[in-house]
Write a structure and sequence with these properties.
The chain has 275 residues and is of the alpha+beta class. It has two domains: 97 residues, no CATH class; 133 residues, Rossmann fold (3-Layer(aba) Sandwich), CATH 3.40.50. It contains six helices and 15 strands. Strands 7, 8, 9, 10, 11, 12 and 13 form a seven-stranded mixed β-sheet that branches. A six-stranded mixed β-sheet has the order 3-1-2-4-6-5. A two-stranded antiparallel sheet has the order 14-15. Strand 7 and strand 8 form a beta hairpin. It is globular, with a radius of gyration of 19 Å.
């Protein structure tokens, strides 16, 4: 029996989730913090407008997950963590189709210029760079995710610096308590104000914080800039993700989408006018 049909939005993108099972359900996810952390701002819409679901969850049956190129289907008893991850991926695809690109990055408007701290291929210090820039008077644009349109304009960003609570299925013992790095760098978390409205990206920085490095600033070549940018964009499609024991994230990417993404990256890293 259909117990719930719920529509979520990220900007102009819409995602519909249908849940079947023996018991009524108020929401697909009880906690939206993970979605807002990963996709800047996700809303539960008051009405369902999409004619077909993008995700279907049959709560009874042997546990499985599948993707037919259009719809993700869960069967069985699934924890909140894998559901969160799949919603993020499917909504990120919908956002991309609307010309909205989630970047794994932080962003700050500092002295009238907006700097993007790109996550790139690894966690090298984008959050610490964002906190330090805000500590020096910068205005917060984004923490974990910056959503950037086809023209290179940041239109929205996540607000929480760290994910303080992880649902079952997203546990990470290899990640230290998020406040420990802040304590070592800053003593306590600085405070700051938010930047209001869209903003052009004036400078992209790929930070690398490592005790073995000598302090330096190096301009990246076009290939490296493209490489790191593509890593940042691909972060949301979870192509190397284990959702649960014995169940991998289905392949959601296509050659057509990858080609479009590569073309967008080419335009994004192209040199802009001198300032």
């Amino acid at each position: 029996m259909l117990q719930l049909s719920e529509e979520m939005s990220g900007g102009s993108a819409r995602l519909r989730v249908d849940v079947y099972g023996p018991e009524p359900r108020e929401h697909v996810l009880e906690d939206m913090n993970f979605l807002n952390y990963r996709l800047a701002k996700v809303n539960i819409e008051p009405e369902v407008t999409l004619p077909e679901p993008d995700i279907v969850w049959h709560q009874e049956g042997d546990k499985s997950i599948s993707y037919d190129g259009k719809r993700m289907t869960f069967v069985g008893d699934w924890a909140a963590g894998p559901l969160q991850k799949v919603v993020v991926t499917m909504l990120a695809l919908k956002m991309e189709a609307e010309g909205l690109h989630p970047f794994h990055s932080a962003a700050v408007n500092y002295r009238g210029k907006t700097m993007l701290f790109l996550g790139g291929e690894s966690n090298h210090g984008k959050s610490m760079g964002q906190i330090e820039a805000c500590r020096r008077g910068g205005l917060l644009v984004a923490t974990e995710t910056t959503v950037i349109d086809e023209d290179g304009v940041a239109i929205m960003g996540s607000e929480d610096v760290f994910l303080k609570k992880r649902a079952e299925g997203t546990e990470r013992a290899d990640k230290a308590a998020p406040n420990k790095g802040v304590e070592k760098f800053f003593g306590s978390m600085p405070t700051w104000d938010d930047f209001e409205g869209p903003t052009n990206i004036d400078l992209v920085i790929v930070p690398a914080i490592d005790g073995n490095f000598d302090p330096s600033t190096v301009e990246m070549g076009k290939f490296e800039a493209s490489f790191q940018t593509l890593h940042s964009l691909q972060n949301y499609f979870l192509l190397n993700e284990l959702l649960a024991e014995g169940h991998v994230m289905p392949m959601v990417d296509t050659e057509e989408l990858r080609a479009k993404r590569a073309e967008y990256v080419k335009r994004f890293v192209a040199p802009g006018p001198s300032s």
